[in-house]
């Protein structure tokens, strides 16, 4: 535990720690979402396995950075995966329901936007007070903004349309 770290985080430290616990649960949940999608995606999505695997690694890296900050503030994240979905703010992710390329990316875009809100809130809560957490919030916010842009760009150019039933049988 970093005594000075905690002292600097000041009276708002409890709120900051609560947000970091939530961020950890969120990152571990999205890590699992992306890894599961990478392993199980179907159809043309198999061409994107590496892409989803990369995303999984990135979110796991975020979880590690959040973990590190929690430790500096004198606590550890939960060791119980069952609590991830209770604490992540988005509930059960159910990656098995999103194994087509379009659905997997649409769902991912939702998560990236939640992450942006989360780190923006964390930055607002720590600005001018707790620079250690603030710097981390800014770094993660930047990554999630890039992720949102990536997902939006893919979706905008994804040239797969649902084939109308009539055309499919013609
Ligand atoms: Fe993340
Ligand atoms: Fe992300």
TrEMBL record:
Entry-linked Gene3D superfamilies: 1.20.1260.10
Molecular-function annotations in GO: ferric iron binding; ferroxidase activity; heme binding
BP terms from Gene Ontology: intracellular iron ion homeostasis
One Gene Ontology cellular component: cytosol
Domain of life according to the entry: Archaea
Pfam family, one: Ferritin
Ferritin-like diiron domain segment(s): 10-162
Record's keyword terms, sorted: Iron, Iron storage
Cited InterPro entries: Ferritin-like, Ferritin-like_diiron, Ferritin-like_SF, Ferritin_DPS_dom
Name of the molecule in the record: Putative ferritin Dps family protein
Native organism: Nitrososphaera gargensis (strain Ga9.2)
